[in-house]
Structures are given as structure tokens and as C-alpha cells.
Amino acid sequence: MPRSVNHVASKARRKKILKLAKGFFGRRKNVWTVAKNAVEKALLYAYRDRKVRKRKFRSLWIQRINAGARQYGMSYSQFMSLIHKNNIQINRKVLADLAMNQPEAFKSIIEKIQK
Question: How many CA atoms lie within 13 A of 39 on its CB side?
């Protein structure tokens, strides 16, 4: 009895991987074994870097808040300490946006916490 192989499923699997490899350079886009490795690696990087992006944004917000606070003679850690002591619940994303785009609003927060 002849061996039964499911070519429909295996071809679909290969097609799916090669579709994901579209735009890759050289053999990574059209040779099954090379493309499979490249796509697996790319998916791992994508998963990892979705988490790294969040870290980088938090770091950027902290730098912006620090720059805004230093204009008024205060370090980032002093500023955040006073924010917490005064029960002002604004997250770093919003504080960074205020420091960059609305310096008057940021100044009013500084004046409020310095009292």
C-alpha cells in the first residue's frame, strides 16, 4: 500500500512561512529552510521588542520629566518624590507630554508641589 502524505497541509504550511518572509533579502525570502529560520527569528525579535518598546518609552518619559524639572532647579527624583507626597496622580507619560508641549501647565505643577 502506498504511503499517505498530506501534501495539502505541508504546502499550506510552507506557503504561510514564505508569505511571512516576503520582503526579506536573498534566499531568506524564497528558500524554505532558510526562510523558516529567518521567520522564526523575526517572530522572536518581534515578541521580545514589544516589551522592550515599553521600557524605552518609560526611559524617554523620565528623561523629558527630568529636563523639565531641572529648569526649575529640581532633579527628577526630587520632583517625583514631591509629586507622590502631594498625592498628585499623574503618570509619567502625561507629565512628559506636559513638560515638552505645555511648559506653563508643567510650571503650575511645580509651583503646586513646592508650596
Answer: 20
